[in-house]
Amino acid sequence: MSIHLMVVAAYLPDDVVTQGQKLALMKICDSADDETRLSRPGLRRLRAWVGVGEKRCTTIVTELVAKGLIERVETGKAGRRAVYRVFPKGVPPIPSNDDLDARFAAADAAPKNPRKARTGVRRAAPSRPAMTHEDIDARALAAGEGVKGAGFHGWNPDEGEGRVPPVEPTGLHPWNPLGSTGGTPSLPSSSFVLPSPPTPAAAAAGERGGCPKHPVAAVSCRACGTNPRAARAAREREQAEADRETEQGWLRGFQADLDEARRVRQERPEDVEAARLLARQLARQGREKTRNGNASEKNRS
């Protein structure tokens, strides 16, 4: 177990190894010897440390070999672990705090996506958010725009003083044909009193009817639940409940007969044995009668 090699592997920068590669390298360093730097981590322990599958674990080890961080000394076989040498080209130094600060500053200044980075373009620092309306006025003056007064205006310049036109709307009739003598325009009556057409299923089944809860009968009333579809579903539920009750009654009677037969067999076993003997005797007589009848038919022929 080499703590020094594992710490060196932990401080490798992100542009050198990925997270999975760093975990695998730390496990190999954890199992390495301080002097020879030879390690036998084992595939099972390496997979558990990195948290990947067997094929991915083997691929990560191959990537570390390609980067020159480890090298294979012996390949693994059944019953024998593979042997690796950690840092064959030399052990890197552990970075100091100044080195880490410089590394983080360079990482923060670098673009998130180098392929889309605009080189040679100096970006302006983000402006401070405006805290009051005075900040907004100052920015408007700097941009050459006029300063608008804060708050809400007292009136609407796009409209007149009156909010409602003095004349009645021309789209409605000036009187109510249902009997009102006032001059206020009225809208047509609600549509719930009008007869509604039947549903497609009800029309196909030839169902007709009305809703008795309204003054004007309607063929279908979804609000009251009197449409033909709901009525048909209610009748089907009632029929299913009646069939179920009939079946349950038959099962209760059958169970009662079984209980009675069991009680008779327990209380009067001699009667049961006598009935069994009688049944056997009758069956035997029936077979003999059938045999005699077949013999007489052969004699006649």
Descriptive notes:
The termini are far apart. The chain has 301 residues and is mainly alpha-helical. Helix 8 (228-267) crosses helix 9. The protein has a three-stranded antiparallel beta sheet with strand order 1-3-2. The chain has helices at residues 3-10, 19-30, 43-50, 54-66, 97-109, 133-142, 200-205, 228-267, 269-300; strands at 38-39, 70-74, 83-86. The chain has nine helices and three strands; from the N terminus they run H-H-E-H-H-E-E-H-H-H-H-H.
Strand-pairing-aware structural class? mainly alpha
Number of helices: 9
Topology as a string of helices (H) and strands (E): HHEHHEEHHHHH
Write down the overall geometry.
elongated
- Fill in the CATH topology of the domain at 3-86: Arc Repressor Mutant, subunit A
Poorly predicted ranges? none
Q: How far apart lie the N and C ends?
A: 108 Å
* CATH H-tier superfamily of the domain at 3-86: Winged helix-like DNA-binding domain superfamily/Winged helix DNA-binding domain
The largest β sheet comes out as: 3 strands, antiparallel
User: Level of helix content?
Assistant: 40-55%
Round the Cα radius of gyration to an integer and report it: 49 Å
The CATH top-level class label of the domain at 3-86: Mainly Alpha
β-strand percent reads under 5%
How many strands appear in the DSSP assignment?
3
**Average pLDDT value?**
76
Strand order of the largest sheet: 1-3-2
User: What is the architecture of the domain at 3-86 at the second tier of CATH?
Assistant: Orthogonal Bundle
